[in-house]
tRNA (Cytosine(72)-C(5))-methyltransferase NSUN6 isoform X2 (Xyrichtys novacula), 469 residues
Amino acid sequence: MFFSAQMEEMSVFPRISLKPEVSNYLKGVYLNKEVLAAVGHQEAECRFQKLLTCLSHPPSYTCVRVNTHLAPLEEIRHKLGEELKKQMCRSSEDVQVQIFPHPRIPDVLLLPVIGPRPVKQLSSELVVGAQCGNAVLRGAHVFAPGIIASPKYMKRGDVVSVFSDLEGKCTRAATSFEGKKVFVGNGVAQMDRSSIFCSDKPAKGIGVQMMEPLYQSPSFDGVLPSLAFLQNLPSVVVGHVLGPRPGERILDMCAAPGGKTCHIAALMGDQGEVVALERIRNKMDKIRQNAKLLHLHSIKAYCCNSIQAVSNDPAQETEGPPFAPESFDRVLLDAPCSGLGQRPTMANTWSLKEVCSYQPLQRKLFHAAVRLLKKGGVLVYSTCTVTLAENEEQVAWALDTFPCLSLQPQEPHIGAEGMLGAGLSPEQLRLLQRFSPELSWDQTETAAPQDCRADRDTIGFFIAKFLKN
């Protein structure tokens, strides 16, 4: 079809690689009866193809949440500019760093991502895992654990082309790889091959310093760690939509690695109590480390499965979980999900069974969240996926299951409205916030204002806000 060919020309990477069963499932979501009736088959098909294309590319802006409880935004902006100028001086390229404050979100700075750029591939090839390749596309250097294959006689100081292994089929310590891979840029090896693959201990630190990445975006490794926090724009929006106030008691049910937890505490001016729950202990330790780094004292992290976080005893008064019913003024349920909105992701090897396994878990968590929330309290539900089953269908189910819940307007509301297909009314869909990069994928290079492009060209994400009456 014409629009498919047009999009392929725009793309430096192939569309995201999915198992056929998952691709067909997603197509059914984007071409459901309600959508087809509203926009027609050709437009629905076009949106679906754009989704598959944009998922394999990074968003066009890097979003930095700044800790305005520690310093004013302009002061952090200036410091960040100085730090990044030093970084660029060490690079072989002359690239100007631009940093813009977001006009509607007071603790966000935006940095344009430049790319894809015309970088020439070299004969010396190094292969990294898909996750590492994704990180490189968002400005990271290559850390040693991410390296899978390298030239046989690679020495520190060698210039290499970095490729991402799309299907996870490259053999560790190989000297070459002919499988499905994509070029992500050129860099300088910081270690000999023997240090990476022949050492008794796992290699640590930067293995390749990226000098000519395909997408130019600053590396934030060690840059202003207590003042600047890399976070996707929709994830920052969640904290503002929750609307925490000083002195409140707030629950973050699935908190690791703690970005949203710390944001909530900062928005409260560190006055009140933010309870963070995480069922995996080493992830819980990461939340505590982040809170300490950001000088936040109102956060209390507990190792707990949030499904079991509510006590059957209304008089329960222990400090940690399980908590008495109606213990919290606000609850954030940033639910475990299929993650199909994450960008860039060039390949996803999950089965349809895995993709569909999250809806029952999300509903169990929802039951606990409603029980733990005070009357008159706010519950925010969010995911970083694009399926109806985990987003709008969950909202329809929640409104049907819990008569005490009502949908609320969101501020800021910079994403699109909810997707058709779950039987929700137009008024209900307008109250939801779905970040849908496919809706503006072919317009990202136009003369639209910077903040508009940054608001549209994000990861796929979903937010619903409820009041418990």
Remarks:
- The domain at 232-468 is CATH 3.40.50.150 (Rossmann fold).
- Residues 1-10 have pLDDT under 50 and may be disordered.
